[in-house]
Give the backbone structure.
Amino acid sequence: MLSIVIPTLNEEKYLPLLLESIKEQDFLDYEIIIADAGSKDSTLQIAKKYNCEITTGGLPAKGRNEGAKVAKGDFLFFLDADTILPDNFLAKWLEEFGLRKLDIASFCFDTQDKKKGFQMMIDFYNEIAILLEETRPFSIIGVLVKKEVFEKLKGYDETIKLSEDTDLGRRAIKFAQFGILRAGKIFISDRRFVKDGWMTTTTKYILSELHTLFIGPIKSDIFNYKFDHYDDKK
């Protein structure tokens, strides 16, 4: 079984799109776990409508860890709420995951709105992620990992304030096989860039990668990461 773990906080706008895209997949041997950090909108009602299991979450790292604790599957798929899966995605990338004998993997991305600037940024990221998959892996937005590997890693490091997902992949390559799956691309949202500003967000990600490279994991609030300010009502 595949356990899909989605951390949420006020995701009534995006979560139905993701859950509907999962529902329409050809692959059916999965469960969906919503790790919620205290949503005040209709997020939990939407999750119940789609028969998701609901557990208490927190910041993304904690939410993913809490979701993993109740997961029944041998494979864990951690996924951000503002994403959409293309048709037949689950079956194709599970097949690739097995054929390449991977233990943990992340994905290439695409966008449905086709904004030129955002598309160029995504294409550049995809090229870099593939180029560095064996030496300095990027595991963001979507991560597929064997449950036994996740448990050996002791999950996400909840003391890290930013890029805790990438940290998971980079710790994993010390003993596990990591890869970027090519079989399909996850559709992602540009909401963080729109809300915080393109230059601000891009600069933040570049500086966070440099911090991780030369100093280590980000365990302070120097980048002022927020999990709950992308609700359009705010």
Summary: Confidence is low (pLDDT under 50) at residues 230-234. The chain has nine helices and eight strands.
